Amino acid sequence: MNAATVDDLLTRELRDDRTGLVDVTGREYDYHWLCTTAWKSGNFLRHAGVREGVTVGVVGDGPLALLAFLGTTLLESQTRFDPPTDLADDDAFRALVAPVDELEDYDLPQGAQRVGYGDKPDSPDVHHFDAGVWTENPSFPPLSIDPDTTILTDGEQTVTHEQVLEAADAVVDDVGLEAGDRVVVRASLSDPRTVVAGVIAPLLARGVIVLPTGDETPTERGTCAVASESTASVPEPTRIDLDSVAL
User: Fold this and answer.
1) What is the dihedral of CA 61, 101, 82, 134, to 10 degrees?
2) Is pLDDT of 112 > 70?
3) What is the pLDDT of residues 154-192, one digit of tens each?
4) CB-side exposure of 5: number of CA atoms within 13 Å?
5) CA 213, CA 140: separation in Å to the nearest integer?
6) Measured distance CA(141)–CA(40) in Å, rounded
7) What domain of life is recorded for the organism (predicted)?
8) Which has the least CB within 10 A, 44, 152, 170, 178?
9) Residue 142, class by beta-carbon neighbours within 10 Å (0-12 exposed, 13-18 middle, 19+ buried)?
């Protein structure tokens, strides 16, 4: 698939009933759900002040964390997965999306918003991601994102839409990834290379993203697995080592 920016992977024309995402329980979500709910996530996060040029922290690695990343991306903002807890001096940090019971562990800069998922927040100052997304507008304004727009950061390195798509395209070619192939994420999303190989590459190939939750091992076995150097072995027949992902 040709894509100049990551939002090109979530267009209306690409919505269909093919599986695009599987969670740790084996529950499947189709591309229609994935695209539409990504738009709803972006619309909701806009209410929390997310906009072009800011940073959004995302804690976790399940479907809701992925939706927060995709919604942030549609708003031309950058995502930092699993950020440190001390963020008070990061003036670009605008919102934190995390499980409700973990939000108070983080020290945020003045004006940054807390967005919780899972249990309903007790505090009125915390936006409830689950409820907000499900009731949001299921459409999104037309986009024209510059390929040089930053999409991911790990606190040291920042990468753009163009860099992410070039690296993901290389993964697709190297592995021979095809539509319907299942890519199991067995490395931390805090590393941008994991996002490239485990999320963007399967979207680019119209494959299936298989996500873990916390320290759990996905019950699904896939066509290939994204793994770090510290992962001794994977049950999938093909392994994508992070060191092979060029960013």
Assistant:
1) 50
2) yes
3) 999 999 999 999 999 999 999 999 999 999 999 999 999
4) 19
5) 28
6) 11
7) Archaea
8) 178
9) exposed
DSSP-derived pairing of the beta strands 158-160 and 150-153: antiparallel
Separation between Cα atoms, residue 64 and residue 175, nearest integer Å: 27
Amino acid identity at 54: V
Tell me the CA distances in angstroms from 195 to 9, 61, 163, 245, one per residue in order: 14, 10, 12, 10
> What pLDDT score does 78 carry?
98
pTM of the model: 0.95
What's the CATH number for 155-244? Answer: 3.40.50.980
The amino acid sitting at 222 is G
Q: Would you kindly state where each structural domain of the chain is located, as residue ranges?
A: 155-244
Q: For 96, what's the count of Cα atoms within 13 Å in the CB-facing half-sphere?
A: 27
Question: What angle (nearest 5°) sits at the alpha carbon of residue 19, between those of residues 226 and 160?
Answer: 50
Check if the beta carbon of residue 24 is closer than 8 Å to that of residue 62: yes
Condensed to tens digits (0 to 9), the pLDDT of residues 191-237 reads 999 999 999 999 999 999 999 755 555 556 789 999 998 887 888 89
Tokens 């697995």 belong to which residue? 225
SS3 annotation, 144-206: CCCCCCEEEECCCCEEEHHHHHHHHHHHHHHHCCCCCCEEEEECCCCCHHHHHHHHHHHHHHC
What DSSP assignment string belongs to 33-86?
HHHHHHHHHHHHHHHTT--TT-EEEE---SHHHHHHHHHHHHTT-EEEES--SB
